[in-house]
Specification:
globular; alpha+beta; 11 strands
Length: 261
């Protein structure tokens, strides 16, 4: 092969070899390890063992409801580490799927359309409890303990324009904020709070919890991750090949003649 052609092949192969890996994506879906609703009208009661949880605006006849959900992200981290390599991935987005239910217990407000907001909680120090609407518990998260779990460091993740439905799926897109991304990267516990945002006066929804009998209708958190490309090294290869090119050029030059007087 002609030296120039050989060099061209060498250059093409080196640049191709030094290109970073193509970006891949992976998805993990998890169910909650805990969830519970808190009622302003029944501030000391725990409802963590119920088959559903409510989210309702303040000022409604049965009071305001907020809900907490917790997920263990350790298996998601292990999955992404196995797919991309430890520390070689980043969380790109997430979503929370809920299934609406019919509020047929007198504890709950009737379903009504409006906005429901989801936020990341810095504080994971709450317990689900075992109370139900017909047999409230005294242990576990309740309205009286909810305020101590909320902090200025919490981050809004997304919102749902709830239709007021009493059946069917509802999806809340979640932004990959620093808090959520950090929990995913470390495989930590993730706590989410669902509530009616300020100014929302009508919304009320009931959703199946992790204790609901049909597994497919329980809450699901979906996490999406993508590979982090390695730093490009093609530039270093080009520098090295330029050196080879200079050496090749010198080798191709005819030696200078030496004249003697």
């Amino acid at each position: 092969m002609h030296p120039v052609a050989r060099f061209a092949v060498l250059l093409a192969c080196a640049v191709a070899t030094c290109r970073g890996p193509s970006i891949a994506a992976a998805t993990v879906t998890l169910g909650p390890t805990a969830d519970a609703a808190a009622s302003s009208a029944n501030p000391a009661n725990n409802y963590g063992g119920a088959g559903s949880f409510a989210v309702s605006a303040a000022g409604l006849p049965k009071g305001e409801f907020q809900a907490l959900l917790q997920f263990d992200l350790s298996s998601a981290k292990a999955n992404f580490d196995a797919t991309f390599g430890a520390g070689q991935w980043t969380l790109t987005s997430a979503s929370l799927q809920l299934t609406a239910a019919n509020p047929n217990n007198p504890l709950f407000n009737g379903s009504a359309a409006g906005h429901i907001e989801a936020s990341w909680l810095l504080n994971d120090g709450w317990t689900e409890g075992t109370g139900t609407p017909n047999s409230p518990g005294a242990a576990g998260v309740a309205w009286n303990s909810l305020a101590s779990l909320i902090s200025p460091s919490d981050q809004v993740l997304g919102s749902l324009n709830f239709s007021g439905a009493t059946s069917g799926a509802a999806m809340i897109p979640l932004a990959a904020t620093s808090g959520l991304a950090a929990d995913a990267a470390t495989g930590s516990l993730l706590s989410l709070r669902l509530y009616a945002p300020a100014g929302e006066a009508a919304v009320s929804g009931l959703f199946n919890s992790r204790s609901f009998g049909t597994v497919a209708s329980r809450p699901e958190l979906t996490l999406n991750a993508a590979a982090v490309p390695e730093p490009a090294t093609a530039g270093l290869a080009v520098i090295g090949l330029c050196g080879l090119l200079r050496r090749f050029g010198r080798a191709r030059q005819s030696p200078r003649e030496v004249h003697h007087d």
